[in-house]
Amino acid sequence: MRIGIYPGSFDPVTFGHVDIILRSSKMFDLLIIAVLNNNVKKPLFSAEERVELIRQVTKNMRNVSVEAFDGLLIDFVKKKNASTIVRGLRAVSDFEYELQIAQTNHKMSSDIDTVFLTTSLEYSYLSSSIVREIASYNGDISKFVPKEIIPSILAKYNKSLD
Ligand code: ADP
Fold first, then answer.
1. Which end of the chain, C or N, has fewer beta carbons within 10 A?
2. Which of 9, 14, 17 to mutate to test the pocket of ligand 1 (most atoms within 8 A of CB)?
3. Is 90 a catalytic residue?
4. Cα(111)–Cα(14) distance, integer angstroms
5. pLDDT tens per residue, range 8-45
């Protein structure tokens, strides 16, 4: 069984993430989306909330599951018996950091590889932080995130759809 891990903050999940999830889930028997429970960055959504939002968005994808993790990604990957880490690349600016992380992880565990999917052009500009910024001003985020999670995002800013 080929298991892939797609780690990230997903604060919140966007169409850019969904695109990577859809494409990479075809490469594995099981794709586990691993939500980083990061105690350094102060996230908008708790890890549990981020997991729940991704579950809503992926509920019709049969070989996709979602879990929160903390600690080292490489330890989580091993615990899940996975062999591959999936990351998305948007721009050259992502590359240097991603290369460093991928090489470090490979050095720590040589049987685990990272694969990169390049973003679909229409989402190359899209990030969770842009979604948070627009939502905080009650802007229209319907082009950026799946509609079922819009109320949860607006609620964080005490905004609503009306
Ligand atoms: P992190 O804090 O780990 O970068 P993110 O939630 O920002 O967490 O991103 C998780 C992964 O999804 C990263 O590999 C990132 O490059 C990728 N990603 C984020 N937005 C997009 C997008 N619009 N298109 C493609 N990949 C994306």
1. C
2. 17
3. yes
4. 30
5. 999 999 999 999 999 999 999 999 999 999 766 789 99
